Amino acid sequence: MSKHVIQIGIRKLRIWPERQVLLALDEPTIRTTHFEDAAHYHPGLKRRAMELLRDSKFRDFYFHGGCGTKIRHIGNWARPEAELIQERARALFKQAYPNENAVIDDSWASVYEKGDYCMPHSHHRSVASVLYVLDPGDQDPSDNTGGKFCFADPRIKACCQVEPGRMTQLLVPTLHEATMMLFPS
Fold it and tell me: C-alpha 116: how far from its chain's center?
């Protein structure tokens, strides 16, 4: 089998589909793409994530502001769907950065329950981070940031609309199921 495809059931899915569109957000260092073939791998990936959520070897919870419950080590999930997402993350990095050395330092899925959120933070050991939306969750109509991924970063021009370097605004990208986003760590 080609190193450019992964077999999932009876289908061979390309790691980076032909004509896959890569878009820049308001911030040129943030890139997004949407995978149209998600129906072929999402059910298996969701099932595996929920199975591993009950396994203490994979499950990690810090506190409510610590980005939900993490299901760690996607590369060890023993599912071709997980391998596909990891390889797509590597391919996205290679599309955005002129570097063939795309190494995954750490990987996890985050499951958010009522009251969980993710404080602004950095991933110190990496150049870029990749987020993949398996399920966008429930939105809170009374809170425009509830249940959404937000950037609060003084380096991002869209966050500093009053004065450069002084954050006064959040950048809230629209993320749907099967969206992958790369951003500075």
Answer: 17
Assigned token pair, 54: 């009950």
Residue 46 main-chain phi, psi, to 5 deg: -65, -45
Tell me how far apart the alpha carbons of residues 22 and 129 are, in angstroms, rounded to a whole number. Answer: 16
Contact predicate 102/15, CB 8 Å: no
Q: Answer for the pair 182, 127: CB distance below 8 angstroms, yes or no.
A: no
pLDDT at residue 180, as a whole number: 95
Query: What is the reported pLDDT for 63?
Result: 62
Distance, in Å, from the CA atom of 57 to the CA atom of 50, rounded to the nearest integer, reads 13
- C-alpha angle 76/82/83, rounded to 5°? 80
The answer, as to whether pTM is greater than 0.85, is yes
Provide the pLDDT for residue 61.
77
